Amino acid sequence: MRLRLKKLVPIGCILFFLITACDAKSDDMANREDIREAAVQVNIVGEISTATATALPSPAATNTPSPTPRFLATLAPTPRKVTVTRLNDAVDPLRPLEIQIGQPIPPITLTDIDGNNYLLNELMGKVVVVNFWTVGCGSCFFEFPVFQSVYAQYPHDDLLILAVNVSELVEETRQLGESLEITFPLVVDPQGEVFSHYFGGAVVPTTVVIGRDGLVAEVIIGPVDGPLLTSILAEAGLDLSQSPLG
User: Residue 23 burial by CB count (10 A; 0-12/13-18/19+): exposed, middle or buried?
Assistant: First the structure.
């Protein structure tokens, strides 16, 4: 696995990991003994891009509810501190993953909140983005406008985005999708079983991009902005020539 951190910060920038305990559970989850009990925030000091742009507030590592994301008028790079949420401090985020870049995606089945099944190794011919997130992850919410904007521009035969909430909260996930007007499929991964077995299970957001050939094209730990996402999608075989983002 490659950490795509080289695309998240300027070359030569020193990364400082400031790990502080945080409670990523909502009130109705307070008594649950699951992977979210170990959630902490990890701040990577740097910028998503060196391009000049109006800075947006960083998602704060606090116990307050995750901020509602603003849908950006453009997908310009967003200089800000990168915040990720560590789900399980017993898991080493740098350990080798079950999946490997350049190798076929395993036969993983994801089921969306409407009951539709997606067998990842049978989706060849389109570029597939699998994004793992949680309700308690502030940075995850800032990715939704990016994914939605890109998803709306391409035929679904060319691009599929699956947003996987690492929890069993089906109705909460549905309500969130409706409130943000998300049109790509939303998935839940109860107890984080798929995420932990195949994708490390340590940090969200984590995004996996699968090329048209069914091979794992990229694994990104940390939030993505528009330029980074479209660059990776192009590498994975998506034709950006007709897109205003290209």
Answer: middle
